[in-house]
Amino acid sequence: MAHAVERAWRPGRALALVAGLLLAGGVLIPTTPAQPSKKPADKPRETKPQDPKPAGPRQKVIQLPSDAGNDVREMVDVINKALEDAWKENKVTPSRPADDYEFIRRASLDIIGRIAKPEEVAQFLKDPKETRRSLLIERLLASPDYPRHWANVWTNWLLSRAGIFGRGMYHEQLATWLEDRFANNKENPWNKIVTDLITATGKNTDNGAVNFILAHVGEAVPPPRRGEDGMFEMVPITSRVTRLFLGVQTQCTQCHDHPFDANLKQKHFWGINVLLRQVVREGTPPMENMRRMTLTPLTLKDNNSANPSLVVGFEKRNGVVLETKPLFFDKKLEIGKESNRREELARLIVEHDNFPKAYVNRIWSVFFSKGLANPIDDFNEQTQVAHPELLAKLAEKFKHYGYDSKKLIRWICNSEAYNLSVVANKTNDKQDHEVLFSRMLMKSMSPEQLFESLMIATQSEQGKDARQQQLDRWLGNLVSNFGDDEGNEVNFNGTVVQALMMMNGQDINDAINRDKGTVAWALSRGRVPAQRVNALYLAALNRPVGQAEFQRIMQKMPLRPGYRDKTESAPYQDLLWALLNSNEFMLNH
Where are the domains of the chain? Predict the structure, then answer.
């Protein structure tokens, strides 16, 4: 097979390899990955099937080091107790713990946005077994990849992936600003970041934060009305601010009272909208079909003389036109004509009870695929809150400890629930059990995570500019398949289209066939196939190869020079390609 596909060239070989070389459907995830040996082994260890019976009493998987902060010990206990009580109440036995290989890959993807490097796996395994996971979490939080990853995540949420701000220079300006804030965590807690986003002014070439509001100003007000109503209607940013920072979806109340929440009225939407009506934009972004043009620098400032009446009119469904002065939900606001309205809005947002709760719930959903309350950004009378006490406690302590994002991540990742396997047992295998967090749910990688992981798996080192250009091309090809225009990632379905996009990518092909790359590194790890295959598995999947997997590989494509392939590296290139196109690589588990 390797010979036939090699001659047909890479796209064809990958399809054949993924379809028939390793396992049916391309799913390589073993039930129990082989354990590491102290020395490279010629014969990888055999994997063992997962016991389908629920586990008995469990010992805690993760132990905190002696120097762990009091907040970590307190909040990890809070999370563990709340979920363990829910498991007992619902007669659910949690899944087995994830093994160390599963954990380092999962934590690396979730915290720094990429898979682990082989040397990082080796360092992790050298740490004391009892505390290695907590030590890993600390290294990941200190990694320079941490601020870059979370800047990507929040830029997509703030700007979405659509429109002229969805990719390119404007998108990168905000990402750069956010990266600097996340890199200086102590000086930039979450409440300060949000305040700076809502109140940002200046040119986007100097202050990328202004692009958040500039991306969502909405329709321009006709020139004759701008003195009274402001330069823009500011409709998109009104709903985006409440949804992202308070978990309250007000977009439908633009046109009518909320159909499911009696507390949300049409006047509430426009009462908040008044606070944004003094925004002025200098410069005009190009249309979407002009994306390739050089993007015009934009400036955001306030015109304190605009909308002097502090009134905005809105039309009811029956055609009646009403007016409202500044409101923050049911709170009437007394704002002077000289007051900075956006500063007042920022203060109201960060002081609202929902502010810490919305952030905690959103971040929890990043790590567990589901929030403690679902939908994650729609707190209303109909919202399903599976663990209200836990959500309230986490929000309270997140606020108490100064809106420190890293603390919240420590609490979550050191919990027992985060350390569980994706493999279900007969007590927790129903969809209704998912909100109990008694097993980990598989997550699709974001396009950025997939790109960064491919760069790591193929050891593709590039300069910053070349890397950004390649990422832009990658996102341009994949975003329509992996995301929506609200910055959300859709579930991976393993479709033929997505698979072919991966397999036929010239960038991936070039990276695999580089003279200096993962295959060359794997060949240097030893002279026997087992050592080399093991190296490829560590690079791509962050685990050793299992014995049964290795035997199947050797049956399908003998890995020795002169057998079918002219070069020693060719069959290993085939194998790496197959690993990168497997579900195990493309899913976060």
Answer: 2-50+444-588, 190-351
